[in-house]
Amino acid sequence: xxxxxxxxxxxxxxxxxxxxxxxxxxxxxxxxxxxxxxxxxxxxxxxxxxxxxxxxxxxxxxxxxxxxxxxxxxxxxxxxxxxxxxxxxxxxxxxxxxxxxxxxxxxxxxxxxxxxxxxxxxxxxxxxxxxxxxxxxxxxxxxxxxxxxxxxxxxxxxxxxxxxxxxxxxxxxxxxxxxxxxxxxx
Length: 186
What we know:
By secondary structure, the protein is an alpha+beta fold. The chain is built from 6 helices and 5 strands; from the N terminus they run H-H-H-E-E-E-H-E-E-H-H. It has a 3-stranded antiparallel beta sheet, with no helix packed on it. It is globular and about 75 Å long.
């Protein structure tokens, strides 16, 4: 007699949300190209959708990991055993990386140890002890961007997406949407 093993699904946390629909993805991508200051978010979304890389993998990407002449991108840091994998970029990926490289070169020479998604420096304006404004004044390529959360929240609101879409990191949501789409293709 063979015993059947019962596998029960894990309980959901309620915060995992759902994948973006095709229409929501299109609205998001159309909105992100409207403002130049959203270019980084747009290029991160393009890379995410075309490489299925996690946000933490994109944040940790350094210029030494990108070889546009040999058409390779090496993911060295990941939260899974997937680290150390090599991606063979498509023309879309190469174009996005070339735009990021051009932007990086506009700030000076690009060192291979510098991050593709460099941290940005902000200058805050105070009134008494309260922050009343902030402005991006430059990039620090020796540090990677910390989070895309506030940009994602602003972007999803501007795209007219439901408030629930801004509760999770946007890159994770795009990645989830892309993997679901890939799994349902014949």
